[in-house]
Design brief:
Shape of chain A: globular
Largest interface: A-B, 49 and 47 residues
Keywords (chain B): Lyase
Distance between the termini of chain A: 14 Å
Helix content of chain A: 25-40%
Radius of gyration of chain B: 16 Å
Oligomer: heterodimer
Structural class of chain B: alpha/beta
Number of strands of chain A: 10
Protein name (chain B): Fe-S-containing hydro-lyase
Largest sheet of chain B: 5 strands, mixed, barrel
Number of domains of chain B: 1
Strand content of chain A: 15-25%
InterPro entries (chain B): Fe-S_hydro-lyase_TtdB-typ_cat, Fe-S_hydroAse_TtdB_cat_sf
Strand order of the largest sheet of chain A: 4-2-5-10
Order of helices and strands of chain B: EHEHEHEHEHEEH
GO molecular function (chain B): hydro-lyase activity
Largest sheet of chain A: 4 strands, mixed
Family (chain B): Belongs to the class-I fumarase family.
Number of domains of chain A: 2
Number of strands of chain B: 7
Distance between the termini of chain B: 28 Å
């Protein structure tokens, strides 16, 4: 049986925390460049140019793209044929976060008790989502999540009779209400179906998808396209100062749901749509 | 459009000339403060104590920077969402604060305090913290060190890029810009 140790997991998470916070994906850069070429507002274009320049500096100097280096969300797809040795898997991940945020000079933005609000000082704990998958590989995806955008997210439990129109309205209204707060151009993750928490997780997962990719189901790909056009027609634009680029992408993910429900979650990400992953 | 060069302190005379949509380059001393520091400052005012700095004609930058790497003045330092400071801003504006740098929407209460006292709301580019850190030449924690990234810092900036979003007459580029580009 394949084995992975505490140190292997911790050191990978450490590396991924620094990489995700300093190097933006080529897909995001590509989306920003094409938005810049199409943006109707001159001020909007100049903002997009500065964002691209910022991301270049961050990658070149290994400094954080944004000072909000986020709460660390970690997706772990653990192959069920892999054995873990040397302690607790969760603790290995937290240790990786602790080291990454220290060595990478990343901001520590986590408070221990949500009501008493004392900073933990090392950005732990991470929010970890485990999935058991077939095989002998482990995939770890680290996605630091800034809260300017996280705070603008929404979830509704619709009646099935309200249907797709209610879903569209929620997405467009959530983006409209968020305005300049989540640092547009944004990426919109939409989760439809499952239960309340499943919809939220689908929306988060949708943000991890490669920008420029479409849902493999044609009716959902069409919904993504329609929603992107609708949110970009709002006029919010780069940084909310007006323009034709409010979102770089809308990604929709679905899951079967109950006969009585239509849970819908909208998770907003800023233009710093960060993640880094490894397969072990 | 040519950017307007501004040097702090920001007087009433200067602030009245600025219009929503103006691009500015700010130089001089500015102060940082976000959620926790604002709460502490307002509590200090309520107890009749002095603030960590004289807010008259100053600019507060809503930022919680990253730690500085060796050789850096400050880590990445872009704006945070201003709305969380809305509950505290009018009291500081009434005390003479002339400028706020952040991102995102403000409440009508903040805007009316700005109109009454000729204050300006500037937006910096959210998510461009590496770029903005380069314009910060000095950084010193002057209060609430225990708050870590949320401590009050005195910064010296040189050509810090920002955009006037809400001017002293209440003109609001967030509204004007959206209206201009919205497809009806």
């Amino acid at each position: 049986m394949r084995k992975l140790t505490f140190e292997e997991i911790a050191s990978q998470v450490e590396r991924l925390c620094i990489e995700a916070n300093t190097v933006i994906g080529d897909d995001v850069t590509g989306a920003l460049k094409s938005a810049c070429a199409q943006e109707a507002s001159p001020l909007g274009r100049s903002i997009l140019e500065k964002i691209i320049e910022n991301n270049d500096i961050a990658a070149r100097e290994t400094v954080p793209i944004c000072q909000d280096t986020g709460m660390t969300v970690v997706f772990v797809d653990w192959g069920q044929e892999v054995l873990f040795e040397g302690g607790e898997i969760k603790e290995a991940i937290h240790e990786g976060v602790r080291r990454g945020y220290d060595k990478g000079y990343l901001r520590k933005s986590v408070v221990q008790d949500p009501l008493e609000r004392v900073n933990t000082g090392d950005n732990t704990p991470a929010v970890i989502h485990f999935d058991l998958v077939p095989g002998d590989k482990v995939r770890i995806l680290v996605a630091p999540k800034g809260f300017g955008s996280e705070n603008m997210s929404a979830l509704k439990m619709f009646k099935p009779s309200e249907g797709i129109e209610a879903v569209k309205k929620l997405v467009v209204e959530t983006v409209d209400k968020a305005g300049s707060n989540p640092c547009p151009p944004i990426v919109v993750g939409v989760g439809i179906g499952g239960t309340m928490e499943k919809a939220a997780l689908l929306a988060k997962r949708a943000l991890m998808r490669h920008l420029g990719s479409s849902n493999s189901q044609p009716h959902l790909a069409a919904l993504e396209k329609e929603l992107l056009e609708k949110v970009n027609a709002l006029g919010i634009g780069p940084q909310g100062l007006g323009g034709s680029t409010t979102a770089l992408a809308v990604h929709v993910e679905t899951y079967p749901t109950h006969i009585a429900g239509l849970p819908t979650a909208v998770n907003i990400n800023c233009h710093v749509t960060r993640h880094a992953e490894v397969e072990l | 459009m040519e950017a307007i060069k501004l040097t702090t302190p920001l007087t009433k005379e200067q602030s009245k000339k600025l219009k929503a949509g103006d691009q500015v380059l700010i130089s001089g001393v500015i102060y940082t403060g976000r959620d926790a520091a604002h709460k502490k400052m307002i509590e200090a005012m309520e107890r009749g104590e002095e603030l960590p700095f004289d807010v008259k004609d100053t600019i507060i930058y809503y930022v919680g920077p990253c730690p500085a790497k060796p050789g850096q003045v400050i880590g990445s330092a872009g704006p945070t969402t201003s709305g969380r400071m809305d509950a505290y801003a009018p009291a500081l504006i009434a005390k003479g604060l002339k400028g706020m740098i952040g991102k995102g929407l403000r409440t009508p209460e903040v805007i009316s305090a700005m109109q009454e006292h000729s204050a300006i709301y500037f937006a910096a580019i959210g998510g461009a913290g590496a770029l903005m850190a380069r314009t910060i030449k000095e950084s010193e924690v002057i209060a609430y060190e225990e708050l870590g990234t949320e401590a009050v810092r005195r910064l010296v900036v040189e050509d810090f890029p920002a955009i006037v979003v809400i001017d002293s007459e209440g003109n609001n580029l967030y509204e004007q810009g959206k209206e201009a580009y919205r497809k009806k």
